[in-house]
Amino acid sequence: MRGKVDAVQRMQDYIERHLNEPVTLQKLAKAAGYTASHASRVFKELAGIPPLDYLRARRLSRAAERLRNHPDRILDVALDAMFGSHEGFTRAFSKQFGITPEYYRKNTPPIPLFMPRSARDYYLYYLKGATETMEKSCEKNSVNTIFVQVIERPARKLIIQRGKKATQLF
After folding, report:
1. What does the alpha-carbon distance between residue 29 and residue 31 come to, in Å, rounded to a whole number?
2. CA 128/CA 1 separation, integer angstroms
3. What average pLDDT does this structure show over 159-167?
4. How far apart are CA 14 and CA 86, in angstroms?
5. 59, exposed or middle or buried, with CB in 10 Å at 0-12, 13-18, 19+?
6. Helix crossing, 2-17 with 36-47: angle to 10°?
7. Are 73 and 125 in contact (CB under 8 A)?
8. Helix crossing, 51-69 with 2-17: angle to 10°?
9. What is the pLDDT of residues 108-133, one digit of tens each?
10. What was the pLDDT predicted at 160?
11. Mean pLDDT over residues 20-37, rounded?
């Protein structure tokens, strides 16, 4: 099992290093040291999604951050994210986040960016039941995710009904 985890981690590292370059399943398989079909199967087993879907989600999340933080044209962002056209990028962005890139740039609503989990962390935490904290992985990856949700609740109303006998109390 440890060999599979290391192979998936090598594929994840390869994806992170080559987000702005063409990546194929054969290149990922070569990084893992497996055949393409076996690499895809092992990656999906440990990461939860197929490797090319993982790659697309990472590219779209990085593109969303760029749209939010930089005034670059959407076409430039799409081409840098390895999409062949503005239309293909818009379709993929809309499918991933539920809104178009133009709407996102103008309004910047909160969207769920794809934050990958490390295969080694998954192995240690879920499969082995390790009690070690995630501090080591946070030091390596330097990515911490915090989700904050504000909930407003209406004021509560209190109804008091007085009873004369103990059996009448609620």
Report:
1. 5
2. 11
3. 65
4. 26
5. buried
6. 100
7. no
8. 40
9. 898 998 888 787 777 776 655 554 44
10. 66
11. 93
> Which residue shows structure tokens 């199967």?
41
Question: Is residue 75 a contact partner of residue 63, using CB atoms and an 8 Å limit?
Answer: no
Residue 114: which residues within 8 A CB-CB, separation 6 or more?
57, 58, 60, 61, 96
3-state secondary structure of 26: helix
Name residue 138's amino acid: C
DSSP per residue over 29-68, as a string? HHHHTS-HHHHHHHHHHHHSS-HHHHHHHHHHHHHHHHHH
Place of tokens 């081409």: 79
DSSP H helices, the chain, are 2-17, 25-32, 36-47, 51-69, 74-80, 86-97, 101-107, 119-122, 135-141
Q: Residue range 100-109: average pLDDT?
A: 93
Residue in 1, 2, 31, 37 with CA at minimum distance from that of residue 16: 31
